[in-house]
Amino acid sequence: MNVFCGPMKSGKTTMLVAMAQQLLLDGPVAILSPAIDTRTPLARHGGAAPPDPVRDAVSKIADASQYDAATAGARAVLVDEAQFLPREFIDVFDAEERRLFVFGLDTDYTGRPFGIMPDLAALAEHITKLSGVCGRQGCTAPSTRSRRLSGGDALVVVGAANYSPRCQRCFRAGI
Ligand SMILES: [Zn+2]
Questions:
Q1: What element of type H or E holds 34?
Q2: Does residue 125 carry a catalytic annotation?
Q3: Selected catalytic residue, list 81, 88, 97, 125
Q4: How far apart are CA 111 and CA 109, in angstroms?
Q5: 121 by DSSP, 3-state: which?
Q6: Domain 2-130 has CATH 3.40.50.300
Q7: Domain-by-domain residue ranges, the chain?
Q8: Please, what sign has the CA dihedral across residues 52, 56, 57, 62?
Q9: Distance from the CA of 165 to the center of ligand 1, in angstroms?
Q10: Using one digit for the tens of pLDDT, what is the confidence trace for 2-50?
Q11: What is the pLDDT of residues 37-65, one digit of tens each?
Protein backbone atom coordinates (compact mmCIF):
# COMPACT_ATOMS: atom_id res chain seq x y z
CA MET A 1 0.00 0.00 0.00
CA ASN A 2 1.17 3.47 -0.93
CA VAL A 3 -0.35 6.37 1.01
CA PHE A 4 -0.40 9.96 -0.24
CA CYS A 5 -1.62 12.44 2.34
CA GLY A 6 -1.68 16.15 2.90
CA PRO A 7 -3.99 19.12 3.45
CA MET A 8 -6.53 20.61 1.07
CA LYS A 9 -5.08 21.81 -2.23
CA SER A 10 -1.81 19.92 -1.90
CA GLY A 11 -2.16 18.22 -5.28
CA LYS A 12 -3.57 14.87 -4.14
CA THR A 13 -6.29 14.59 -6.77
CA THR A 14 -4.04 15.88 -9.53
CA MET A 15 -1.52 13.20 -8.61
CA LEU A 16 -4.20 10.52 -8.43
CA VAL A 17 -5.43 11.36 -11.93
CA ALA A 18 -1.89 11.40 -13.34
CA MET A 19 -1.08 8.05 -11.71
CA ALA A 20 -4.35 6.51 -12.93
CA GLN A 21 -3.52 7.58 -16.50
CA GLN A 22 -0.11 5.95 -16.19
CA LEU A 23 -1.48 2.75 -14.64
CA LEU A 24 -4.17 2.47 -17.32
CA LEU A 25 -1.39 1.84 -19.83
CA ASP A 26 -0.74 -1.45 -18.00
CA GLY A 27 -4.33 -2.61 -17.69
CA PRO A 28 -7.66 -2.02 -15.97
CA VAL A 29 -7.69 0.30 -12.97
CA ALA A 30 -10.28 0.75 -10.23
CA ILE A 31 -10.70 4.16 -8.60
CA LEU A 32 -12.77 4.23 -5.42
CA SER A 33 -14.54 7.30 -4.09
CA PRO A 34 -16.39 7.29 -0.72
CA ALA A 35 -20.17 7.43 -1.21
CA ILE A 36 -20.42 10.00 1.60
CA ASP A 37 -18.64 12.45 -0.67
CA THR A 38 -21.43 13.48 -3.00
CA ARG A 39 -19.33 15.75 -5.17
CA THR A 40 -18.44 14.73 -8.68
CA PRO A 41 -15.56 12.26 -8.27
CA LEU A 42 -12.12 13.68 -8.99
CA ALA A 43 -13.54 17.16 -9.40
CA ARG A 44 -10.47 19.32 -9.44
CA HIS A 45 -10.42 22.73 -7.97
CA GLY A 46 -10.39 25.04 -10.93
CA GLY A 47 -8.60 22.51 -13.15
CA ALA A 48 -9.70 20.50 -16.14
CA ALA A 49 -12.03 17.52 -15.75
CA PRO A 50 -10.25 14.16 -15.64
CA PRO A 51 -9.99 12.31 -18.98
CA ASP A 52 -12.82 9.87 -19.75
CA PRO A 53 -10.85 6.62 -19.18
CA VAL A 54 -10.01 7.83 -15.68
CA ARG A 55 -13.53 9.04 -14.92
CA ASP A 56 -14.97 5.76 -16.22
CA ALA A 57 -12.83 3.82 -13.72
CA VAL A 58 -14.45 5.51 -10.70
CA SER A 59 -16.84 3.64 -8.40
CA LYS A 60 -18.64 5.12 -5.41
CA ILE A 61 -18.20 2.86 -2.41
CA ALA A 62 -19.88 2.95 1.01
CA ASP A 63 -18.71 -0.19 2.81
CA ALA A 64 -16.24 -3.02 2.46
CA SER A 65 -18.84 -5.48 1.14
CA GLN A 66 -18.73 -3.53 -2.14
CA TYR A 67 -14.96 -3.69 -2.49
CA ASP A 68 -14.58 -6.92 -4.47
CA ALA A 69 -17.21 -5.95 -7.03
CA ALA A 70 -15.85 -2.42 -7.35
CA THR A 71 -12.30 -3.64 -8.01
CA ALA A 72 -13.06 -6.80 -10.04
CA GLY A 73 -10.67 -7.18 -12.97
CA ALA A 74 -8.50 -4.25 -11.93
CA ARG A 75 -4.72 -4.59 -11.88
CA ALA A 76 -4.31 -1.54 -9.67
CA VAL A 77 -6.57 0.22 -7.18
CA LEU A 78 -6.59 3.93 -6.35
CA VAL A 79 -8.62 5.45 -3.54
CA ASP A 80 -9.67 9.10 -3.35
CA GLU A 81 -10.64 10.94 -0.13
CA ALA A 82 -9.91 7.83 1.95
CA GLN A 83 -10.34 9.73 5.22
CA PHE A 84 -14.09 9.36 4.76
CA LEU A 85 -14.10 5.54 4.54
CA PRO A 86 -15.22 3.40 7.52
CA ARG A 87 -12.65 1.55 9.63
CA GLU A 88 -13.35 -1.83 8.02
CA PHE A 89 -11.33 -0.63 5.04
CA ILE A 90 -8.10 -0.70 7.06
CA ASP A 91 -8.00 -4.50 6.91
CA VAL A 92 -9.28 -4.57 3.33
CA PHE A 93 -6.47 -2.33 2.13
CA ASP A 94 -3.87 -4.11 4.26
CA ALA A 95 -4.82 -7.41 2.60
CA GLU A 96 -4.78 -6.02 -0.96
CA GLU A 97 -2.10 -7.71 -3.05
CA ARG A 98 -2.53 -5.59 -6.15
CA ARG A 99 -0.88 -2.21 -6.49
CA LEU A 100 -2.78 0.11 -4.15
CA PHE A 101 -2.55 3.90 -3.94
CA VAL A 102 -4.54 5.60 -1.20
CA PHE A 103 -5.04 9.38 -1.14
CA GLY A 104 -6.54 11.38 1.71
CA LEU A 105 -6.44 14.28 4.12
CA ASP A 106 -4.10 13.42 6.98
CA THR A 107 -5.65 15.87 9.45
CA ASP A 108 -9.16 17.21 10.00
CA TYR A 109 -10.08 20.84 10.55
CA THR A 110 -9.23 20.57 14.25
CA GLY A 111 -5.71 19.48 13.35
CA ARG A 112 -6.21 15.87 14.53
CA PRO A 113 -5.48 12.73 12.46
CA PHE A 114 -8.42 12.16 10.14
CA GLY A 115 -10.42 8.90 10.10
CA ILE A 116 -8.51 5.83 8.95
CA MET A 117 -5.57 7.79 7.53
CA PRO A 118 -3.19 7.32 10.51
CA ASP A 119 -3.84 3.55 10.47
CA LEU A 120 -3.25 3.38 6.73
CA ALA A 121 -0.07 5.43 7.06
CA ALA A 122 1.18 3.01 9.74
CA LEU A 123 0.51 -0.03 7.55
CA ALA A 124 1.73 1.42 4.26
CA GLU A 125 4.99 0.40 2.63
CA HIS A 126 5.42 3.96 1.36
CA ILE A 127 4.04 7.28 2.54
CA THR A 128 4.22 10.54 0.65
CA LYS A 129 3.36 13.72 2.50
CA LEU A 130 2.19 16.40 0.10
CA SER A 131 1.97 20.10 0.80
CA GLY A 132 0.90 23.18 -1.07
CA VAL A 133 1.16 26.79 -0.07
CA CYS A 134 -0.48 28.40 2.96
CA GLY A 135 -3.75 30.06 1.91
CA ARG A 136 -3.44 33.06 4.22
CA GLN A 137 -2.78 36.19 2.24
CA GLY A 138 0.84 37.21 2.49
CA CYS A 139 2.07 33.84 3.81
CA THR A 140 4.01 31.56 1.48
CA ALA A 141 4.98 28.82 3.95
CA PRO A 142 4.26 25.18 2.99
CA SER A 143 0.73 24.11 3.95
CA THR A 144 0.30 21.09 6.22
CA ARG A 145 -3.15 21.73 7.71
CA SER A 146 -6.67 22.48 6.50
CA ARG A 147 -8.51 25.39 8.06
CA ARG A 148 -12.28 25.31 7.86
CA LEU A 149 -13.89 28.53 6.74
CA SER A 150 -17.53 27.44 7.25
CA GLY A 151 -19.64 24.42 8.12
CA GLY A 152 -19.98 24.42 11.93
CA ASP A 153 -18.61 21.61 14.08
CA ALA A 154 -19.43 18.56 11.95
CA LEU A 155 -16.28 16.61 11.18
CA VAL A 156 -17.37 15.63 7.70
CA VAL A 157 -18.09 18.64 5.55
CA VAL A 158 -16.80 18.19 2.06
CA GLY A 159 -16.04 20.72 -0.60
CA ALA A 160 -12.96 22.77 -1.22
CA ALA A 161 -14.91 25.99 -0.78
CA ASN A 162 -15.27 25.18 2.92
CA TYR A 163 -11.55 24.83 3.57
CA SER A 164 -8.31 26.64 3.03
CA PRO A 165 -4.81 25.25 3.45
CA ARG A 166 -2.65 26.67 6.23
CA CYS A 167 0.93 26.35 7.33
CA GLN A 168 1.50 25.06 10.84
CA ARG A 169 2.04 28.54 12.27
CA CYS A 170 -1.07 30.15 10.74
CA PHE A 171 -3.19 27.11 11.66
CA ARG A 172 -2.14 27.28 15.30
CA ALA A 173 -2.80 31.01 15.36
CA GLY A 174 -6.29 30.41 13.96
CA ILE A 175 -5.79 32.83 11.09
ZN1 LIG B 1 0.83 30.55 6.84
A1: strand 29-34
A2: no
A3: 81
A4: 5
A5: helix
A6: yes
A7: 2-130
A8: positive
A9: 8
A10: 999 999 999 999 999 999 999 999 999 999 999 988 777 787 655 678 8
A11: 877 778 765 567 888 999 999 999 999 99
